[in-house]
Structure formats: structure tokens, C-alpha cells
Amino acid sequence: MRRAPFLLAWGLLAGLLLVLPWGPLAADGLKDQVEDLARRHRFQLLGADVIADAPERVVDGDLDRRLAGLLDGFNHMILRDAAGRIETVRVTGLKGAAPPDRSFKVTVRTQRRGTGHFLEAVVMGQRPVRKRISMMVDTGASMVILPTSMMADLGFAEDDLHQAFLQTANGEVLGYTAKLRLVEVGRAIERDVPVAFVDDLLLGDNRLLGMSYLGRYVITADDAANTLSLQKPE
Predict the structure, then answer these.
(1) With a threshold of 0.70, does the pTM exceed it?
(2) Is the Cα dihedral 134, 160, 11, 201 positive or negative?
(3) Is-contact 190 203, C-beta < 8 A?
(4) Residue 164, by phi and psi: left (phi above 0), alpha (psi -120 to 50) or beta?
(5) Which of 40, 58, 99, 189 is the most buried (most CB within 10 A)?
(6) What is the CATH number of the domain that holds 124?
């Protein structure tokens, strides 16, 4: 189990104070290959999510030849320093693909429990299995928060997790952080979403949809209509 530094943010449930070690998860595929090159050759990689679903490729040669082969079919830019060394690789999209639709908006129905909005979401962990769960919308939680009992169901092993300490109203408790492959609400799908797992007794029956997902949208909750709207920022 890896230990990591942490960042603190408030959650609404039981005064939850979260620890956020956002390390990447090990995964096979093109993104993993390019990220490995970035680490070994010490250049910055931007736009890696564009290649998140692409399969692994077999490419040989020097760094330039390998990058050209790995990113063939993707629009990308390579920035170099004065000595010609690669400083930054930015992947901007699939060649021939339309630019992202910033007017994208999804509105879903919610159920009310007191002042809370609950909705149906789909999550996927290390296993390529979609799991549908009810989640409470919590803009005060910095991450998606799930009970530790779900770790095995989502395919997380010890090496996939960072150990983290969480401060609650009842004191400090142990938790674990990782990344979900995807979180889906209606048609609003996000990948590589940071998640924190905490003891089931702390959460009760709740699973929290926090800002590691919600922060990628402009969100509007309509208390009268019992709906939540998710819109990509301009």
C-alpha cells in the first residue's frame, strides 16, 4: 500500500475532511505507453485523456520515432527547448474529429431526501464492468466518495490504492484513494475520476458524487423540478 502527501478539502457528510493523493493508476494501453515515455524522458504530457481508450501499439526506435508512431492518427504538438530536447507533448484530438461540443448539456432527474439530491450513476473501476449505484450530489466533497466494501467489486487491489488519513467530526480515520475509469450520469461521461474509499459505517448508505466529477461541469440543481443539469464550461 502506497502512502502519499495530501490536500485537504471539506465534505458535507459528517464534516468529512479529505486527503487527496491523485496518483495515476497502472493500466495497459496507449496512454500508459506515452506517460511512461514522459516520465523516462522528463517531458510534460498534456491532453493524455484524448488517448485514454486507444489500445497499446508496438513501436521501436528513438524517442522521436516512437512518439510519431504512438501518436499517429492523433493531432498533437511537440515543443522543444533551445537544445532541441522535447519539453512538452500536447495531444489535442483525433485527426478528422470534430472539436468538443462546449454547449453539451445533460439534465437528469433526482430524488430528494431532505435537502439532498440523489441520482443514478454508473461507475467503473479497474474491472471493465459497469456498476450502477445511487449517489448523493455533494459539491462540498472534493472527490467521489465510496464505501470500502466496493473496492473489491470495482477490481481495486492494494497496489492500486494510496493510503490516506481522513479527518471527520469523530476524529481521524483511515481511507484509500484511486481513480475510477469512468463515472457516467445520463450522457455525461468522465474518465480518470479521483475517488476516495472510506469505511461503510462512516458513509451509512450514501455514496457521494463530489467535485472530482462535478467540477468538470457547470452544475444547476432545480429543487422545485427535482433535476440536476450538467453543462460543459465555455
Answers:
(1) no
(2) positive
(3) no
(4) beta
(5) 189
(6) 2.40.70.10
